[in-house]
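To whoever is on call:

I kicked off a structure prediction for a single chain this morning and the downstream step that reads the tokens threw a length-mismatch warning. I double-checked the sequence; it's 296 residues and nothing unusual in it as far as I can see. Pasting both halves so you can look.
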Amino acid sequence: KAKKVVDDFDDEDDEDEPAPKKKGKDKKDVDDYDDEEDEEDEASEYLKVANIFYKYDNIQAVYEYLNEKTEDKLSTDNKIDIIIQTQQGYEFREHTIKPLELDIDTMYNDDFKEVHEHILNKLNNSDKGIILLHGIRGSGKSNYLKWLTRQVKSKFVFVPINMIGHISSPAFIGDLIENKGSILVIEDCEQYIQDRRGSDTSIVSPLLQLTDGFLSDIVNIKIIATFNDDSAKVDPALKREGRLIAEYEFDKLKASKVSALTDGEYNEDMTLAEIYNTLTYQKNQKKETKIGFGLA
């Protein structure tokens, strides 16, 4: 009986086989083949998985394989989506931002490294929550966010300050659902996340729904909010355990770090912006001096 089944299966295969083609390809066939190759080249940056066969007791090997392959495909560009409003509604438009090299050990104070590692782990593995980054201007908050776009697999979505108030819009929520798993970046949002009892512009309620409410299970987004004011003004509900991923206050770089970055030229607490501006000014002054000497 088994042999009969096999024979029947072979007969079916024979019936499904197309008639043999003549040898060689005419020009049309070659053109079509070239087009297919072009399409494959354009799609080569995407990972394509058809089927994975595994034993249940070896599932960890599958996870490790997929993680290895996706890490290989992490973008070498700093890319971020920007939300804009059009006549048709909201659009998420991807933009490439200026590449940024950053060293956590030398450009930030020692207490930030552990916080950074926690943030990186949660952004790559957690499905929702909020991160609060605050501190004085020029201390490296924005540069850190730009650098993060290359360290995390999820899409970063930047919300311009004039669009922050739209977060509670039903249409906006609908677009977030279509971009579930994204990381929402809201900069300079002091007035929008302060205590709801004393603010007319607060968006705390929709943020709570997006990070820990029923809606959070649908959109699975993480939110990074940056601001310059004291965090004491932030609505306490945003800091509740289970909702807050991390909070960090950026300050001036300690004198020892400044000395290392400036080869001992400066030995006082300074912000990254102050260090960069000072060194850039000195570099430009040297160029002008050389030019002046050459003309003389």
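Update from on-call: the warning came from a stale cache, not from the record. Cleared it. Sanity check on the structure: The two ends are 103 Å apart (CA to CA).
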